[in-house]
Amino acid sequence: MGEEGKVLKAFSHRVCVCAVSANSMMRKNRAERGGKMLQHKGTNSIETLRLRLRKFEKNDAKDMFYNWAGDPEVCKYLSWGPHKNIGVTQIRIDSWNNQYNYEDTYVWAIELKSIHQPIGSISVEISDDRTKSCEIGYCLSRQYWNQGIMTEALRTVMRYLFYEVGYEKIVAKHDVLNPASGMVMQKAGMKFEKMMYRVSRRRDGTLCDCAVYAKKIWED
């Protein structure tokens, strides 16, 4: 190799070393700014005094359909309408079961231990690993409204997401025409953050205003 080749080789080596060092420093700086990364653990089972929060199972379709997914009143303020039949519910559960293969999937059936039936669901709808924040959605059979069940489930899931996964902020929102959902959020320790106007359409075609609530880990 000639002198020119040796110089080019040495220069290339220095460039590569500098590039690797720069990338390492950038990763280190990001880590120092952001702290630990999220430790996704998936939809693990969690128990409370009254509830068992668990993965949906294939044979849950009938209970899910009759307890809440097929009820127009439960679905009144949700982004999806009531299921037309158990077959639709089964497709939804099968989809969740496929998603359970990924550790960043959080979709729980809310099982009432006294009757061994799922009576609702709670899940992470949107997740941002960069900001360590997520949005939660939930629904519950109207037979069990006003009994503190949804508040119990929401508190439990937030603790799991904060202390087991590493989220630092959890958000939830509700249609302004459904203030009862906002009461659940408040009782679970979330605080009103802002209003979002005309952000989506209800199933009847009208535009929806939403109230946004949030809780940060240092407020727990």
Structural write-up:
- This protein folds into two domains: 1-35; 36-219, Gcn5-related N-acetyltransferase (GNAT) (Aminopeptidase), CATH 3.40.630.30.
- The protein has five helices and eight strands, in the order H-E-E-H-H-E-E-E-H-E-H-E-E.
- The protein has helices at residues 3-34, 61-69, 86-99, 149-165, 179-187, and strands at residues 46-47, 51-54, 107-112, 117-128, 133-140, 169-175, 191-201, 207-216.
- An eight-stranded mixed sheet has the order 1-2-3-4-5-6-8-7, sandwiched between helices.
- A hairpin with a 3-residue loop joins strand 1 and strand 2 (51-54).
- The longest helix has 32 residues, at 3-34.
- It is globular.
- The protein starts with a helix and ends with a strand.
- The model is unreliable at 6-34 (pLDDT under 50).
Write the layout of secondary structure elements.
Layout (H helix, E strand, L loop, with lengths): L2 H32 L11 E2 L3 E4 L6 H9 L16 H14 L7 E6 L4 E12 L4 E8 L8 H17 L3 E7 L3 H9 L3 E11 L5 E10 L4
Parallel strand pairs: 5-6
Antiparallel strand pairs: 1-2, 2-3, 3-4, 4-5, 6-8, 7-8
Key words describing this protein structure:
37% helix; 220 residues; 5 helices; eight-stranded mixed β-sheet; Aminopeptidase
